[in-house]
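haha ok so turns out i had the wrong file open the whole time. this is the CORRECT one, sorry everyone. sequence first:
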Amino acid sequence: MIKKTARSKAIGILVSLFATISLILLFSTSAAAYSGHGNGTADDPYQITSNTFQFFQAQTEFSELNEIRNDLFAHYILMTDLDLGESDALWKPVGDVANPFSGTFNGNMKNIKNLNVSVSDHEYYAGLFGSTSENAVIFDLTLINATAECKQYTGLGDAGSLVGYNRGDIVNCRTVNAFVSSNWRSGGLVGANFGGTIENCSAEGTIIGIDSGGLVGINVDGIIKTSYSNASVTGPGSTGGFISRNYNGSISNCISEGSVYGDYTAGGFAGCNVQQGIIEFCYTKSTVDAKTQTGGFVGVNQGYMNNCISINGHINNRPMISKESSPYPPYTKYVFGSGGPVGRIAHSNYYPGFSEDYTAKIENCYSWKETKTNRWRFGAVNGEVVKTADLKSFPESVWSEWDQLIWEKGEDGFPVIKQMNLP
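then structure:
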């Protein structure tokens, strides 16, 4: 009888233990499961339908959108417009370099409003997505009134309203009235594009950073095409109306407008184009104001530029000598700048010596003849400059070289990108 009781107790303990483990596993599985509809596959993506949801009567911020971080390899589709400003919570970027977002996000022609991202030390990427892999695809999405700030004190950070550090494909996405700021690389849409493809995208807003660009901060081995920026871009380093630095990347059929205010290596379209970077069939209307290495289209070119046009209201080095208020009134003090000649197309075009078969080259590029500068020239050191000229209009001989499937003439006679199928 005693033995039977002991055996019964042992069996009871095992059954109880098994039930407890099963309950824990069941609860864990349920907690990790996606709360909305869909299976996360390409044919049946997870559906993002609302800002919040109820779980055991506790409200969780950002709900289904927030659950993207639980499965970085799944497929998602946005089913409705979202307003993240309805909560005071800051958005935590999805993915980092160690664990990037590697799935698909279909914006479904919807909007996400009032995104608010602010990261600091040891969080290096600011945006809706912090980092994406080469397998990631983001498309058909609009961000409105997005703020992305990377406030690093001991490191360097990348900030973009959509992606901080991108290696994937971004198609048909735009950001409107964005504010992006970083102590390193900042772009209206993407902070740093490493090998990724950006197509049919646009950015409008205010961009601040050491290497700052209207659409993208820095492009390394990436492809950017048929895209547009209209931004106020400010920074102490390489500064461009469209992009800060293009390293061995390809940029084609793009436009920049707005204003550029920098210290050195500043251009209406790009701060610099280097390491065999290619920029073709692009033009800028951005005004440019910097201290030195200032160009209407690009500050410094070490790559290849073809059929690029600079139509700037002004290209200006800030005065060599400026007056500032003195701490000893009524006296004033004079500050001597480091400025130098500016260029209607480029401040300088030169070969930096990366390889023997490499030559910096600018050809078939044009500038608006009435562009006003305090001092101008086209600088060329060791590079090759072919067929650069002033324009008073956009002649047929120039227009015939541009792809008529991509471009059409605007009301002012200058080319505009045809409808880009943006959301």
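The two ends are 78 Å apart (CA to CA).
again sry for the mixup
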